[in-house]
Amino acid sequence: MNNAGERLYNGLVKENPTFVLMLGMCPTLAVTTSAMNGLGMGLTTMVVLALSNLIISLLRGIIPNRVRIPAFIVIIASFVTAVQLLLQAYIPALNKSLGVYIPLIVVNCIILGRAESYAYSNPAIPSLFDGIGMGLGFTFALTCIGAVRELLGAGEVFGFALMPDSFVPIRIFGQAPGAFFVLAALVALQNYVKDGRKKAGKSYEKIGSGCSEDCMNCSEKGCTKRFYDGDGTSKAAGPEKEER
């Protein structure tokens, strides 16, 4: 569960932070008035998430447990400041469009959640790819929401007109209620696909964010670290258990 491909797939599909975990709703609903804004916000968050995951994982051995949250915030805030300065210098239009939501990445629950549940207890490379995967999942979700809102609210996507001249923009999709409507529709579509896969006998359940060491209550029956079967009885001690 720690190789790069699995971490990327986990963030994009199984634990997509927007469509599955429902995290980071403030920027998701606020900045997705266009596909470009959604893409810019998602990529900005991905950079901060990946780099903060990497540094937190590298420093996990020296960060005292009792002050880990303040330490996480300091690390995240440092990367957010650097990214914001780069946006101000090279992409000022995007920086102006995203506004206050760039500094608010510091307290984004996606970033803090991954730092706490994964990066602080896993090696550096898997943590880096976990951040990239979660960031790509967040970017994909925001871009999709922004594209639908922009298409219905302005008749264009990424500034390119896609609707006929007779199309009358539905202005509500450019306003706050439109974000809720589009998010609900996309989540419903995902759930429809998920149910279809279940009926076809394909598992589509999300995987865990990291080993909780609670083998008795763990639902990951394929985990090699699992000590208990589903009925609560202890497994026979194998080579892996004896080594631990």
Any overview of this molecule?
- The protein has 244 residues and is mostly helical.
- It folds into two domains: 187 residues, no CATH class; 34 residues, no CATH class.
- Helices cover 57% and strands 2% of the residues.
- It has nine helices and two strands.
- The protein has a two-stranded antiparallel ribbon.
- It is globular and about 65 Å long.
- The two termini are 19 Å apart.
- The C terminus is likely disordered.
What is the fold's blueprint, element by element?
Elements lengths: L3 H11 L10 H6 L4 H24 L9 H23 L1 H7 L10 H9 L6 H31 L1 E2 L2 E2 L14 H24 L39 H5 L1
Which features does this protein show?
244 residues, mainly alpha, 2 domains, 9 helices, 57% helix, globular
Could you give the order of the helices and strands? Answer: HHHHHHHEEHH
Strand content: under 5%
Beta strands, count? 2
User: Could you estimate the helical fraction of the residues in percent?
Assistant: 55-70%
Number of helices: 9
Strand order of the largest sheet: 1-2
Low-confidence stretches: 206-210, 226-244
- Span between termini: 19 Å
Query: What value does the Rg take, in angstroms?
Result: 20 Å
Overall mean pLDDT = 83
Reported for the largest beta sheet, the result is: 2 strands, antiparallel
Number of structural domains: 2
What oligomeric state do these chains adopt?
Answer: single chain
Question: What structural category arises from helix and sheet content?
Answer: mainly alpha
What general outline do the C-alpha atoms trace? globular
Short description:
The protein is mainly α.
